[in-house]
Design brief:
single chain, 180 residues, alpha+beta, Peroxidase, domain 1, hypothetical protein PF0899 fold, four-stranded mixed β-sheet, 8 helices
C-alpha cells in the first residue's frame, strides 16, 4: 500500500517534531529545516533528481552529500531516511507539515489582509495585534494585498476564517436589504 503525500508528511514531521522536542532541539531544528526548505525551493529539480532511479546511485548520493554534510544529527537522519525510502519528493511537504506543528505550538497564525490601499507598517501592526487578540494567537504573520474593489476597510483571511470589514461588502449587504 502506497501512502499519499499528506500522510507521509504528517508521519515524518510528527516523529521529527516529537524527537526534537524531547531532545530540546526544536528551535535549532526548526531553523535548519527552514534552510533546507530554501535549498529545495531554490533548486526545484533537486528532489526529483534525488528520487530518479535512472541516475546512478553514486550521482544521487553526490547530490545528497552536501545536504547531509551541513545537517545536525537529527536532521541528517531525517534526510537520509527520506532518501533511503525514496521519498525525497516529499521533503518540502514534510517540512511544511513540521511548520504547521511548530506554529501550533507557538500559537502563530498566518493571515492575508486585503485593503483598497497599501497599509503602513503601523497599520499592519495594529491589524496583527487586533487579529491576534481575536483568535487567541501569540503571533500573527500578515501578508498584504491591495485590491481597489474593496473600496475601504479590510478583509482578513486566515486558514478557514474570513473577516470581511470591507466597504464593498457593507454596500452589497445594504443593497440586498434595500432590494428585499
Amino acid at each position: 500500500m502506497s501512502l499519499n503525500r499528506a500522510t507521509v508528511a504528517k508521519r515524518y514531521s510528527q516523529a521529527l517534531f516529537d524527537l526534537l522536542s524531547e531532545k530540546d532541539q526544536l528551535e535549532s531544528g526548526y531553523t535548519e529545516l527552514q534552510e533546507l526548505r530554501r535549498i529545495f525551493q531554490d533548486n526545484p529539480q533537486l528532489s526529483t533528481m534525488l528520487s530518479d532511479a535512472s541516475l546512478q546511485v553514486a550521482d544521487r548520493e553526490a547530490l545528497l552529500q552536501p545536504l547531509l554534510k551541513q545537517a545536525s544529527p537529527y536532521i541528517k537522519n531525517l534526510i537520509q531516511m527520506v532518501y533511503d525510502y525514496g521519498r525525497m519528493e516529499n521533503m518540502v511537504d514534510i517540512i511544511d507539515q513540521f511548520q504547521v506543528l511548530y506554529d501550533e505550538l507557538h500559537h502563530t497564525v498566518y493571515a492575508e489582509v486585503t485593503t483598497a490601499v497599501e497599509l503602513s507598517a503601523e497599520q499592519k501592526s495594529q491589524i496583527e495585534a487586533v487579529y491576534a487578540k481575536r483568535v487567541g494567537a501569540e503571533k500573527v504573520v500578515l501578508s498584504s494585498k491591495v485590491d481597489p474593489d474593496v473600496i475601504g476597510g479590510v478583509i482578513v483571511k486566515a486558514a478557514d476564517t474570513i473577516l470581511d470589514g470591507s466597504l464593498r461588502t457593507k454596500i452589497n449587504r445594504l443593497r440586498q436589504q434595500l432590494l428585499a
